[in-house]
Amino acid sequence: MKLEYNFIEGTFLAPKVYGGLYFDNNKELKSITKVKSYKNKVDYNSLNSLLNKDKSLSLPQIKWFKNIKEGNIKFD
User: What is the pTM of this model?
Assistant: First the structure.
């Protein structure tokens, strides 16, 4: 195991779904979010808002469908 970040503020919603604020080497405040199997970036404030009751966040994602018999790939 290794230490990746020293968070000043963090939000941990589920295993492999988290975000936080930290200072980088230049003493600038930065944010990072990690969501398992989601390639696009998620804003930390959006992730943090999920701690409030009845809040939700919709994350659109392109799905790929392969058909080996037809030899094509479809996007949805």
Answer: 0.71
Q: Is residue 71 part of a domain?
A: yes
- Average pLDDT in the 54-73 region? 84
Which residues is 21 bridged to in the sheet? 9, 31
Q: Which of 10, 15, 56, 50 lies closest to 33, judged by CA? A: 10
How many domains, in total, are found in the chain?
A: 1
Own/partner long-range contacts of 39-47 (Cβ < 8 Å, ≥24 apart): 44/11, 44/19, 44/20, 47/11, 47/13, 47/17, 47/18, 47/19
Within a domain: residue 61? yes
Domain contains 3: no
Whether 33 is covered by a domain: the verdict is yes
> In a 10 Å sphere around its CB, with 0-12 CB exposed, 13-18 middle and 19+ buried, how is residue 22 labelled?
middle
